Amino acid sequence: MELDQFLAAITPLNFALALFGVLAGTIVGSIPGLTATMALAVLVPVTFAMEPASALILLGAIYTGAIYGGAYAAILLNTPGTPSAIATTFDGYPMAKRGDGDLAVALACFASVFGGMVGALALLFLAPPLSKVALAFGPIEYFWLSVFGLSLIASLSNGNLMKGLAGGAFGMLLSTVGVAEVSADIRLTFGSQTLIGGFGVVGALIGLYCIPVLIDLVAVPGRHLKVEENVKAVRIGDAFRLALQSKFNLVRSSVIGTLIGILPGAGGSVAGLVAYSEAKRTAKPHQKFGEGEAGGIMATESANSATVGGGFIPTLVLGIPGTPPDAIVLGALLVQGVRTGPAMFTQSGSIVYTFIYGLLIATILMLPTGLLIGRYAYKSIVTIPKAVLVPTVGFMTIIGTFSIRNSVSDVIIMLCLGVFGWVVAQFGFAASPIVLGLILGPIAEQGFVQGWIIGDATNNLFGMFFGRPISQGILAFTLITLILPIFLARKKSKLNVELES
Amino acid sequence: MLKRIIFSAAMAIAMVSAVSVATAAKLTGPVSYIIPFGPGGESDISARFQQPFFKEKFGQDMVISYQPGGGGAVGWASLNGLNGNGQTIMGVNLPHIIIKPAQKDVGFTTEDLNTFYMFHYTPDAIVVTADSPYKTLADLVADAKANPGEVTMSGSGKASANHLAQIKFDKLAGTVTTYVPFKGTGAAVTALLGKQTKAEWGYTTVGAKQGDAVRMLAVAMEERHPLFPDVPTFKELGYDMTGGAYRGIALPNSADEATKKLWSDMIGEINNDPAFRQQMLDGGFAMLDVDADGMADFMKARIEEYLNDAREAGLIK
After folding, report:
1. Closest Cα of chain A to B258: distance in Å?
2. Reduced to 3 states, what is the DSSP secondary structure of residue B180?
3. In this predicted complex, what is the ipTM?
4. Is the backbone of residue B261 left (phi > 0), alpha (psi -120 to 50) or beta?
5. Each residue's pLDDT tens digit, A269-309
6. Contacts of A446 in chain B (CB under 8 A)
7. CB-based contact B69 A41, cutoff 8 Å
C-alpha cells in the first residue's frame, strides 16, 4: 500500500480539514433543502488556494458528512434532509416517536460509518474493474432498474397496494411536467411559467414529508416525540449491539450502495430504497419493518453512505460524475490541474490516493462527530417547545426550498404539494410512493425512449428489452419482489386453514 | 454659520461621490455567477476555470451557483427579474437561447437576454471508442450508407447543438444515422464508452477528457484544433461544416451601459490571459472573443444560421 500518500493524508492540516468538513457537512445535510451539492459549490473557490490533496479532502469530507446529516431530520422530523435519507424515515421516525430517537441517531451513525468505509475501500482497491459496471448499464438496464425500484412500492406499502400504486403513478405523472429531458418537449405546464421547471425532487421531499408533519404538530396536543425518563446522552452501547447483530444486513446494504453509487444518475435515494427493501424481504418474523425496526435504518444509512465512495469510482476512473456532488468535485479537480479519466490513476496517482485516504479518514471521524452532533440534535428537538419548533422548521422549509435554485415557483409548488400530501394522507396515501414515482419516472422514461430508439434502429426491439443478461437479472429480481409476498401470503393462509381443520 | 458651511460642503462632497459611484460602474462585493444547468457540464467547467482568474484580477469573489431546469429555460426566464447592479451574471449558451424560444413560449426570447460576451465554443466532433471499427470518417459514412439507420449516435439532448450537427451531417453526406438523445454530454459519453451506441456526436472537449479511450473522426472547425493535430476537419474531408455550442455571459437587462462595458472588459481580460487560454485549449475548447460591441452582429449571424438549420431539420416551423 502506498504509505507516502497515507502519510500525506494525515498531516495535521488535512486532519483538521477533514474534521471541519464532516462537521459542516453534517449540519448542512441535516437541514432539509440545503444539499451537499450546494455546500460544495459554495466552498469550491475556498479550496483553490489550497494544495490539491487538502482541497479534495475537505470536499470529500463535506460530502460524506452531508449524506449522513440527512438522517437527523429523517429520524426526528420525518423529513429526509437529503433525498438519500427517504427510506430512513420509514423506521427512524416511528422509533423517535416511541422515544428511541437517541438510539436511532446512534444507529444511523454506526451504519453510515460502516457503509462509508465499504464504499471508500471499494474505491481504493477495486475502482478500475468496478467502473465497468457503469459502462455495462445501458438505457435498457436503467429502464429495468427503475421498474425494479417502482416494484418496491409493493413491499413498501403495507397492505395498501392499490393506494401505493396510485401514489407511484401520480408521482410519475408529476415527473413528466416541464421540459422533457430527452425530447425537449414542454409538457403539462398549461402555459404556466411556474411549472416549466417541473417538480424538483428536493422541493417535493420537503413539501410531501415535512409540511404534513408540521400540520399534525399544530393539530395535536402533546409532545412531538415521546421522551423516556432520564434520557441518556446517546445509547451507544445498545446501538453497537444492534449493529453487530445485523452485520449481514450492513454488509449487504453497503455492497448494494456501492454498486448503485457507481451508476451515474441512480444515486443515494435509489440505493437506500433498494437496500431497505432487500432488508425487509429477508427479515426475520419478529422484525416489523415500517414500525421502528432498527434494521431499516441500518440498511438505508449504510447503503446511502456507501454511494459516496461508489460514486467517485466512475468520476475518477472515467471522468463521468456519478452524482451532482461528484460533478462539483470533478470541476474542482480540473481547476487544480488534475486530469480525470482513464489515465488519471497513473498520471495523478498520488493526489488521487491521498484523496481516497482522506475520504477514509473523514468517514472514521464521522463516528465521534456524528454521535456528538446527534446528541445535540436529538436533545434540542425533544426539548424545544412546539411553539418554537414549528415556526423554525416552517421557516427552514421555505428557505431551503427557495435556495435550491432561487425560485419562488419551487416554494409555491412545495407548499401546494405539502397541503396535498396532508390531505391524501388522511385517506391512507403515503408520501413515499409519490416521491419514488417522481425520482424513478424520468429514469424509466429516458431509458425506455433511448432503448426503443436503439432497438428500433438495429431491428432488435425484443432482444434490446429482454435479451441482455443484466436486464434479465434485474427483471428476475423484480418478479421475485412482486410475486414472493403473494406466494408467501397464500402459503401462510393455507397453513392456517390446515391448522384450523 | 461656519458649521453650516462645513456641513453643506460635506453634503456636497458626499453627493458628488455618490453620483460618481453611480456613473463609473464598479463591483461592490462578491459577484454571483449563475449557471442555468447542473454542475459538471461544459458550462460549469468553464465557469470554474474563470473563477480563480476573476478573483486574482479583480479582487472579488465569484460565487457559482446552479439553477437547473427546463434545459436552461428556468434560469434565463428569471434573469431579467434579477438586480442589474452588476453583482449578478448568468451563463448563456448557443444554440439553446435561440432554438428554445423559437419552439415554444419558454418565458424568455433570444433578444431579452443582455448577452455581453461570448468567450468560446466547443466544436462539434464525431467520437468513437478507441477499438471502434470506424478508423476514419469514410468508414462510418460507408457503414451508414450500406445500412441506413443502423448507425446509432448518442448526443446531448434534442434540438441541441449535437442534434443539429447530426441532421446537418446526414444531409451533407447523404446518410441516414439514428440520433439517440441523452441527458447531457456525460451520459452520452457513457453510452458511447459502454458501446450502447456506435458513435457519439460530441465536442472536442470529449476527446480532451477521454484521451486514449476514444478517437475523434472529424472536428467542425475551420482549422485543426491545436490539441488534436491528427484529427481532420470536416471541411478537409469535403463536408462544409463548422460550429458547435457557444458559451457566454449575460447581465439582467436593467444593467446600465457602464456596467455592461465593465463586465465585457473584465471577461475579455480573463479570456485573453495566456495562462487561461492555455488551460481552455488543453481542455479542448476553441476560444472566441466577442465583446459587448460585437455582440449584435455575432448574434444576428448565429440566429440566422441556427434557425435556418433547425427549420430545415424540421425542429421548428
Report:
1. 27
2. strand
3. 0.86
4. alpha
5. 889 988 998 898 888 888 888 889 999 999 999 999 999 99
6. 182-183
7. no
| pLDDT of the residue at B3 | 56
Residue B193: inside a domain, yes or no?
yes
User: For strand A186-187 and strand A178-179, is the pairing parallel, antiparallel, or unpaired?
Assistant: antiparallel
* Domain co-membership, B51 together with B100: yes
Contact B82, B66 (CB under 8 A): no
Range of the domain at B297: 30-121+244-312
Question: Domains of chain A: which residue ranges?
Answer: 3-500
For residue B210, the chain A residues in CB contact (below 8 A) are 319, 341-342
Highest mean pLDDT among A239-243, B63-67, B146-150: B146-150
CATH number at residue B145: 3.40.190.10
Residues B98 and B131 in one domain: no
CB A148 within 8 A of CB A478: yes
| A490, pLDDT greater than 80 | no
Could B190 and A134 be called an inter-chain contact, meaning their C-beta atoms sit closer than 8 Å?
Answer: yes
**CATH classification at residue B52:** 3.40.190.150
The CA-to-CA distance between both ends of chain B, in Å, stands at 75
> Nearest Cβ partner of A454 from B55, B107, B197?
B197
Lookup result for grid cell 450546494: A38
d(Cα A271, Cα A295) in Å, to the nearest integer?
A: 15
Which helix (H) or strand (E) segment holds residue B115: the answer is strand B114-129
Q: What is the helix, strand, coil percentage profile of chain B, to 5?
A: 45, 20, 35
For residues B210 and B250, state if they share a domain: no
Residues B98, B147, single domain; the answer is no
CB of A214 within 8 A of CB of A32?
no
pLDDT attached to residue B55: 93
Q: Give B170 to chain A, closest Cα distance, Å.
A: 15
Taking CB atoms and an 8 Å limit, are A196 and B180 in contact across chains?
Answer: no
B19 assigned to some structural domain: no
Same domain, B196 and B130: yes
Domain count, chain B: 2
- Using a CB-CB cut-off of 8 Å, the residues of chain B touching A311 are none
| Separation of alpha carbons A132 and A136, rounded Å | 6
Return the number of CB contacts < 8 Å for A and B. Answer: 176
CA A338 to chain centroid, in Å, comes to 29
- In B, minimum Cα distance to A404 occurs at B67
- Listed by number, the residues of chain A in 458-477 with a beta carbon closer than 8 Å to a beta carbon of chain B are 458-459
Contact residues on chain B for A42, CB-CB shorter than 8 A: 63, 65
Co-location of B104 and B136 in the same domain: no
Residue type, B294: G
B219, B252, B268 — which closes off a domain? B219
- Let me know if A491 is exposed, middle or buried by CB neighbors in 10 A (0-12, 13-18, 19+): exposed
Cα distance between residue A111 and residue A259, in whole Å = 17
Is residue B18 assigned to a domain? no
* Interchain contact, A182 vs B183, CB within 8 Å: yes
B245 closest CA partner among B73, B111, B125: B125
pLDDT tens digit sequence for B283-314: 999 999 999 999 999 999 999 999 998 998 88
Cα B100–B102–B106 angle (5° rounding)? 50
B16 pLDDT tier (thresholds 50, 70, 90): very low
Q: Is residue B224 part of a domain?
A: no
CB proximity under 8 Å: A 348-387 to B:
none
Q: Largest Cα–Cα distance of chain B, in whole Å?
A: 98
Give the phi and the psi of residue B179 in degrees, each rounded to 5. -95, 130
Q: How many CB atoms neighbour CB A230 within 10 A?
A: 5
Predicted TM-score (pTM) of the model is 0.88
Chain B interface test: which of A46, A47, A186 (most B C-beta within 10 Å): A186
- Which chain B residue has the Cα nearest residue A339? B209
> If DSSP codes are grouped into helix, strand and coil, which group holds residue A64?
helix
Residues B77 and B105 in one domain: yes
